[in-house]
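User: structure tokens for this one?
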Amino acid sequence: MNLTEKDLTLLSEKGISEGKVLEQIDTFKEGIPFVQLEKAVTIGEGISKFSPDEEKSKIEKFEAASKEGLSLLKFVPASGAASRMFKALFNFLKAYDPSNESLEDYFERTGDKALKVFSEGLTDFAFYDLVKSRISGKSSSKNEEVYHFVEEMMSEEGLNYGFYPKGLLPFHKYRDYASTPFEEHLKEAAEYAKSGDTAELHFTISPQHGEMFNTEFESVKQRVSDATKTSFKVSYSYQKPSTDTIAVDLKNEPFRNADDSVLFRPGGHGALIENLNEQDADIIFIKNIDNVTVPRFADEMANSKKVLAGVLLEVQEKAFAFAKSLDEDNLSAEQLGEIKAFLEAELNVRFTEKFMAFNLDQQVEILKDKINRPIRICGMVKNEGEPGGGPFWINDRKGNISLQIIESAQIDMNDSGQSNILKNSTHFNPVDLVCAVKNYKGEKYNLMNFVDTKQGFITGKTKEGRELKALELPGLWNGAMAFWNTIFVEVPSSTFNPVKTVNDLLRPAHQVK
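Assistant:
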């Protein structure tokens, strides 16, 4: 591969080394092997489920610790644009002409169920009053009203919601105002991520949306502060240009744009491990921007997060004590066995059969490596449909067994044994994590040291009518955290309320009434 001076200048501007580009091209050439599943993770076999009394104890553990100066942070990936959420509406504008066809004839002709649901639920959307006021007097029939309503929402001359970041769309309709996911995350933070009277949140956003988020914060912070008796410290970061990945053609040569420049593409949400690595808190809650709910579900949601944080504090307390003793004490074989048993039983660590054959000094070094890692407690929701990615025991390239969150794209569906393991999975990960990123001395781990770089994705794309191959970095809660210590806990399905399409806003979790 020959890089031109122009290419090298581009690499320098992005902060990408030539060596990294060569590594990525080698990855395209070699391919990324499928993950080898050992078995699905189920209740009692990798997923913990607690009784009400146990949950109460863990909530009390977290609440007591948070009053003693524990630093807390809510980390919210929020860079996603809303364009995919409105795919059905964009399609409708292209396919429907109200002057030539009634809505009923359109539905019969196209079978467009999504638009039918949207039109029937129109008045229940948080943005209804705003859009309605902007199209007042434009429509003489229901057909025209729906068309103009969608047109006002989606057109550049109108509200242009397709350009909006998802986090700034009106999601929930209150009596006097409509709230965005951004505002709902502030309310949530006041419930479970508050130190003293201050809640700290960090949003990863796109650069073009920075001013929009600032404006929204200034608009809502007093209202939320008054309602929650909380002040808010909000910060933002962008996905770094240095995490962009090179695209290649079908011959694994750099894909070049019409101006002969090399094409780089965003590396996916796995790039955010670098943003997370820059945060400093004792406990970090991670939750996607669109996964919010209305007040009547708030207590259950907050208690669920506190349970996960309580689990984290309980296991961390033991891990810290053992890590300190490994550093400071001359431990016996029996004591080392106790630490090994803790790692296996409570942190789901697996050891090779060779471990007991090592001498005590070698065992100490292995135990130090296993225990001195960031910890993540991951909420798991029961599958209520076709199972997708989720929690599995996997066997890596070196024969190590570990607990991982795996996407379906990482699994060889042509292998009946592997696909059966996927079908037998009972839970999935709703991006609900509580993380600890410091060691017992209070020093932050370098999270980049715990990424499995071989857990990325290669996908096929097109640009300017030409096929290309793109590389996504290991996902933030997948390969980017592959070498963390991991605990899975079942959480209520009511805590998972993503908005993938606009019609999801019609679900009870997003209806205030």
